[in-house]
Amino acid sequence: MGKPKKLLNNPVDVVTELIDGLTAACGGDLRRLDGRNAVVRTEIADGKVALLIGGGSGHEPMFPGFVGPNLADGAPCGEVFAAPTPDLILDTLSAVDRGRGVLMVYGNYAGDNMNFDIAAELAEEAGIVTRTVRVWDDVAAAPLDRITDRRGIAGDFFVIKVAGGAAAELSDLDEVYRVAVKARDNTRSMGVALAAGSIPETGERTFELPEDEIEIGMGAHGEPGIARRKITDADAIAEEMTDRILADLPFSAGDEVALLVNNLGATTCMEMLIVARKVHQVLKARGIAVHRTDVGSFLTCQEMAGLSITLMKLDGELKRYLDMPARSFAYSRA
Q: Among 139, 169, 236, 334, which one has the highest count of C-beta atoms within 10 angstroms of its own C-beta?
């Protein structure tokens, strides 16, 4: 298989140029942070608890696409598939702080954990209070008794949406942290890969998968899943993934959930809607009500073919923050 085609200039400049494009597309609502690879909202209210998100680039629209009112206040962007540096995180954190502290939400990966922790220590020395919520929604990454070893995938979005609403309404950092932790702990996801994405600078694919095979549970960077098999029909794949997600929390009859069907990069809307249809059927048969469904691109891996399914178990508080109006480049809700 040949190297994939991409519309790029110098591949070394992809992060800088995507941020230029993002800020231009947002019509003044976002600004680049002092020539750095980070974005912040141009208007953040004084006395607001700030929400900082971030991680490696290459997964757009995650993370910078979700900076906006009732979502995040800023996002440092690492190089492709690499964590942002501690100094970049610290500078972005300082830029969004409005005196009430900063909640940091990001995916649970070793590089991100280390660099965000270092930035938090430096922020503390500077008098900025922080709290951290690492998202670990990928049920395929580790068993339940090692949940803190799991990866963060598209469930990041639901946690960011809830945390953003809480940070807009609540004036206490510990309360915003409590709500975000509840959102994280009630969120579960699983992905399926059909074909690999690639690294812009090298053109190399992130994994190899035979043309007639899929991998259930593969991570957003091509991390190993739980089963590789011949491709079968969409209903069988969707039902297996949903069953595994439901068993993990576990979800039960009478629960109400939010559903996210996420495009990993190159999957058609047609395919995602076919999968969403089957997930709804499975949930209805289990006596689980779907409060809302989001279908689209939230966390991608370049041109990776595949999708992920995310469920968040809702209560009144989570539902209220999830449903709050929001506006950003990648997501708006009236």
A: 139
